[in-house]
Structure formats: C-alpha cells, structure tokens
Design a protein that fits this description.
Mean pLDDT of chain A: 95
Shape of chain A: globular
Helix content of chain A: 10-25%
Subunit structure (chains A, B): Homodimer.
Largest sheet of chain A: 7 strands, mixed
Strand content of chain A: 15-25%
Keywords (chains A, B): Isomerase, tRNA processing
GO molecular function, one term (chains A, B): tRNA pseudouridine(38-40) synthase activity
CATH class of the largest domain in chain A: Alpha Beta
InterPro entries (chains A, B): PsdUridine_synth_cat_dom_sf (IPR020103), PsdUridine_synth_TruA (IPR001406), PsdUridine_synth_TruA_a/b_dom (IPR020097), PsdUridine_synth_TruA_C (IPR020095), TruA/RsuA/RluB/E/F_N (IPR020094)
CATH architecture of the largest domain in chain A: 2-Layer Sandwich
Low-confidence stretches of chain A: none
CATH superfamily of the largest domain in chain A: Pseudouridine synthase I, catalytic domain, C-terminal subdomain
Largest interface: A-B, 18 and 18 residues
Number of domains of chain A: 2
Distance between the termini of chain A: 23 Å
Structural class of chain A: alpha+beta
Active site (chains A, B): 48
Oligomer: homodimer
Chain lengths: 254, 254
C-alpha cells in the first residue's frame, strides 16, 4: 500500500490519533462486515508521523474467502484518499508481513534552499544550506555492509541488537529542483536510522563534518555523536522484500 | 508568488477564512511595521479554494523604500510555508497587478484512474474514466480565438462581457502517470472558465460528447449546456503577462 504520511500520526495505532494502522484496520473490518472477532492487521514496518510509503506491506486473515482483486477494490472504496492499496495477493497462512522480510528500501528527498517550497514542504526534508553531492557520494560507501548502528538509532528504539546490514546506499542531485535524493537498501533499519544517516550525510555535504567521519561515528556507538535527524516529510518507505531473488534483482539493477 | 492552494479558501479576503490575500497582506504589513494606514495588496487574479499558483502577481505601495531583494527575503521570512515570493521588482507608481495584464497562462493536471492517488489528491483533478488524448487534441482548436464564453462561465461571475480571447490551448498525456495535462493562454479567463473547459474536454475524451461539440456549445451561450466543473485541485495559475513581447515569446515557444 501507499500513503501520504502528512496527515497521519505514523503507522502504529495510538489512542486518539489518526494512524495508518487504525484507518486500514477499520476498512478491513468494514469490508469483512465487522466480524465478532475483529480482523487484526500486521504491517512490515512502523513509519513515523509525516513519513510516506509507496510500498508498505500489510497482512491479515479474513474470516472468509474474497479474491485478491475484490479485496483491492473493496479496500480502496473504503480507505481515505491519502491511502491506497496498490496490489493484493493471497499468501500462505504462515506469511507474516513483518517477520518474513529479507530487505527494505527507503527513499529520501532533501530540498536545499533558504526558503521552503510550498509544493515540496510535505514531501521533502528542508535544508537551508547547500550540500555538495560529491562529498556525500564519497562518504556513502562507509555505510554499506554489516555494522553496529548504535550511533544512528533514536533513543526510543526497542531493538536490543543494533547490528544491521546495508546492501546499497546511493545519492544523486537534481540540480534544477534544488534536491538531493538518497536511496538505502538494507536488511532492516533501526528507529530513525535512515533520517539520522541523512542528517549526517547532509552535514558532510555542507562541510560541517569530514568526508571520512563515518567509520569513527560507527565505532563510537554513541547516539550523541550523530545528533541530527532529517525531517520525516522527506522519507518514503519504498519497497519491502520477501524474496531473496527479487532483492538481488533490484540490487543488480541499481 | 507561488502557493499551494490546498489549505486556502482561495485568494480573495473573506471574513473568518484563511485566504492568500489575508496571509500575504498580514506579512506585508508586518514587514512595513504595521503603518497607521495599512498597506493594501492587489492580486492579478482571484483563484478559488484549492487552486494553486506558480506565478500569481501582487502589487502594493510601501510607505518607504526597501530594495527588491530585501522585500523578497523579508516576506519569505514572514509568510507561511505554503506560500513563497519568487521574485520582486520595483515598478512605476502607475503599475497595477490586475489591470495591466496582457495575458494569463493556466495549467491543469487531470488524473485518470478508478481510485485517487494519495500523492496527487491535492495536486490533480480526479477523473474515474479514461479519456482519449487524441479526441481532446482534435477538439482544442475550436476554443482558440475570440469567443463569447457564456457557456463556460460559472453562475457567480460578476463579468458583464463574456468575450475573451484564447491564444493557445494544448493538451498532452503522461501515460506512465495516468495523467492528462492542459495549458491555456489567453487574454483573461472568466470565473471557473478553465475548469469548465477542462470538464467539457474530458467528457469529449471519454466519448460522452462529440469531438466537434465546442462550436455549438459556444454558440448556445448557455451555461447549462456545459454543466461540469473540473476539480479545483488540478488547476494552477502558471503565469501572468504584463508585456506583449514576453507573451509573444512564450506563445512562439509553445
């Protein structure tokens, strides 16, 4: 599914808040004619308030059979306009949207200009100072591989193990748009990890950190060394992988 | 100036409503240190609630001299994030943003898909049924030229004379985006004229009207013959012209 995260307090259900899980769960249960035992929905990952998704994956068990196209159309008729179900597949009973992932891909759009662009304000992170794309590209390979990302995890994280593997890390500039875009593909990402990595990379681009600072930051295993967190509005959950073959094919194409 | 019209009740000041004129006027007066006689702002055209602008033009008289760059930066520091001043010029005392126009250019984005796209919902008009771009392109030349557009004006219009000249009318498809885009350049447009023209053109594309229906619609001079109005969210005031030379140059480039 895709959603514009602007008007959501994130994915995860929270009392009194409009969240993706809540509106999605409501639509699924309405489609299922509100069964006595409510249908529970499971997402591949929790996105924060303001974070967008092109490829969030959600699974649930319906009390009776509906074909995939019927589910897609039924849900899209019931969901609010800032969410959409793109594809639906019937999966084996054992499938789990969260625990069966073999990789995830995130996209980040950084807008660099003194003033916010009205049309990008909800869809990019805003950076006042210009960052040099070549400095960023030089630093990126230091993030690739299996590392302890303790320096790059927000304090709210519930993960005990901070070791994650990044398969690919890319950045490119769209000079006519005053944008730098990032794409990260990895085994999984810690709470706020992508946004903290982008904040550090933008500081490298702006010359506020050395191009070769990342190995030291990783080695420090200390969140205070990274400090910043790039704005949620620039982050997109682009794709969740469940098959090694699909993950490898995408990595080979990039 | 540019603005994202989503959260505005249009351009024109209205009691109790958030309008572009109101927030802009507030910023101008704050920059001018709230003079005893408030600075009045004049826009080139009034856009409706939800309509966007890339090139709205506004003029005002400041009680003292500020250089153009100082005005641009000062206003952008004071304006909300869904508006921005792109360029500022000092003009002769006689200049009037509304009465000195020699042409205007509007852009329209029509999204065609059964369901709304979360990321386009505020930035396109949504059309459930597919329209054929070739049928639209065949019909477009019938709108070009000097016509009485009474059939294409909304009932709230205060204009007495409904004769306007359209200099150019174009449409093209973005198949990968499920979009059809329109651009109209003319001497000026009546209330809702562009949105009514788009609604008729989309109906032509969908096969619900004949390709050659426009001459009859114009001749009828009857709003009831056109009926529909395309959604405000797809409309952008792209450019306002004050010089014949600039208008001609743009028309020659298209």
């Amino acid at each position: 599914m895709a959603y514009d995260g602007t008007n959501f307090a994130g994915f995860q259900r929270q009392p009194g808040q409009r969240t993706v899980e809540q509106v999605f769960s409501k639509a699924v249960n309405k489609m299922a004619k509100d069964p006595a035992e409510p249908v529970v929905v499971f997402g591949a990952g929790r996105t924060d308030a303001g974070v967008h998704a092109f490829g969030q994956t959600v699974h649930f068990d319906l009390p009776y059979e509906i074909n995939a196209e019927g589910v897609r159309r039924g849900l899209n008729s019931l969901l609010p306009v800032d969410t959409i179900v793109k594809t639906v597949a019937i999966v084996p009973q054992s499938f789990h949207a969260r625990y069966d992932t073999v990789g995830k891909r995130y996209w980040y759009r950084a807008y660099q200009n003194e003033f916010v662009d009205p049309f990008k304000r909800n869809y990019t992170g805003h950076f006042k100072f210009h960052a040099d794309i070549e400095r960023i590209q030089q630093a990126l390979p230091d993030l690739v591989g299996k590392h302890d990302f303790t320096t790059f995890v927000a304090s709210g994280s519930q993960a005990h193990d901070h070791v994650r593997e990044i398969f690919s890390a890319e950045a490119w500039a769209l000079p006519n748009e005053d944008e730098i875009q990032f794409e990260f593909c990895g085994s999984g990402f810690l709470y706020n990890q992508v946004r903290i990595m982008v904040a550090v990379l933008m500081e490298i681009g702006q010359g506020r950190r050395a191009v070769d600072c990342i190995p030291q930051l990783l080695a420090a295993k200390n969140r205070e060394q990274a400090r910043g967190t790039a704005p949620a509005s620039g982050l997109y959950m682009k794709k969740v992988y469940y098959e090694q073959s699909e993950l490898q094919a995408d990595l080979n194409n990039h």
